[in-house]
Design a protein that fits this description.
The complex is a heterodimer of chains A (247) and B (256). Chain A is 83% helix and 0% strand. Chain A is an all-alpha fold and 247 residues long. The two termini of chain A are 24 Å apart. By secondary structure, chain B is α/β, with parallel strands linked by helices. In chain B, the strands form two sheets. A six-stranded mixed sheet of chain B has the order 6-7-8-3-9-10, with helices on both faces. In chain B, strands 2-1-4-5 form a four-stranded antiparallel sheet. Classes of the chains: A mainly alpha (247), B alpha/beta (256). At the A-B interface, helix 1 and helix 5 of A face helix 2 and helix 3 of B.
Amino acid sequence: MLAIVQKELRILFGSPLAWVILALVQLVLTWVFLAHLETFLQVQPQLIMIANPPGVTETIVAPLFAMAAVVLLMAAPLLTSRLIAEERRNHTLPFLVSAPISMTDIVLGKFLGLMVFFSAVVALVAILSMSLLAGGPLDIGLLLSNIAGLCLICACFVSLGLYISCLSASPATAGAGTLGALLALWVMDNATGEGKDNITRNFSLLSHYENFNRGMIDTFDLAYFVIFILIFLVLSIRRLDGERLLG
Amino acid sequence: MMPDVVINDPASSAAILVRGLCRYFGSRAAVHDINLELRRGEVLGFLGPNGAGKTTIMRMLTGTLAPSAGRIEICGIDLVDKPRDAKARMGYLPEVPPLYRELTVNEYLRLAARLHRVEKAEIRSAVVRAVERCGLGTTGKRLIGSLSKGYQQRVGIAQAIIHDPDVIILDEPTAGLDPNQIRDVRALIRELGAERSVIISTHILPEVESMCDRVQIVNAGRTVFDDTLGGLRQKGISLEEVFMRSTMNFQRLESS
């Protein structure tokens, strides 16, 4: 499995795609970060007037992480689409399948490889937030909850993308499919209006992320993410195994 | 390499033993009741017209396609019961060499070695040995994507022999090569066949005559001929004649 992780990372970082995405995501998020910082500095005199004012973590870091999730939702399909579809197109899948490793090793290796990349993105966002420490204290608990939420939602993006990539023989189709599915999962809570306890809302990825974003780690959200990730990893393994059986 | 997987005495069992292998795609039988036995140190030529089911059989032997019925044993290890132990003992070059164009030759061969359970300390020497055997010379640091077709094919073969497998399965190893490269690859396969068991699929008859000890001809998913080349020579029949007769007859039978 580690061999697959290493191979994925080598191929990923050997191509300009990963670096371009890393740079662009960072550029966009820094821009958002600076914009929030400026707003905060402008309203700071008024904030001091009210009792129990929102801190810098709530006004800058939380919106930054909320934005990061949306940006990564857009970026994830670009990276996940090639996972299996490209192996298939380049006829390299038999190389992995005929090797003495299991399908689980292949799928998990690919999943973890891409998660290393996303961890790097999350780490960069975290460092960006930590730079505020130069100006004053941060709510570390809220920051950690945001980091955990962003890691989990990225894992969801990757596992869904991985599965859709298993279904397709061309990376472009897989990418489009993943983007569509992720967007659908995002807007699901918007479409149903204001009702807080709507069932469709429970299926929306981003609405579960909101709680992490506010610093509330709910077992329901945690369970949702973990089940989401596991379901699509298992489906991917089953799909590849099924291909061996059905041809 | 993996001392704990040595279950049977290596000398006693055949390198590959296949009994009653069938494969259906829907209701169409692509492979029907194939028996195959490959002894150690034997080179078997797997012949047949295009679409005869050669590649399907090879995919089943290497575990990339599950058989509908039948049993496959690699060095006495059942491929279905212990797929990983069985796969560790064979090297496979598919019809299209499975190469990552973004990796260098050395990176790719190191990856192949790790995937095939070569021990960490021996990976470096395994790569050097495979590079040498396949005549890859100074290409080690070049990207696979920048190599010529002939060299890519050699990298494909190097990948199949990196873990020093007991059984080597090559699907049309000389397809698309120029005459010099074909000669080189054939020499390499003969050399490998001296100590390992090799299966080569092809539809080029002289290739079989120059490399193989035994030939098995399949047509429409069935074995239609199976004999040693020595036996053929004794009977004074040419391979071409046998091939024509066994594959044409069948088509006439099918159509009638």
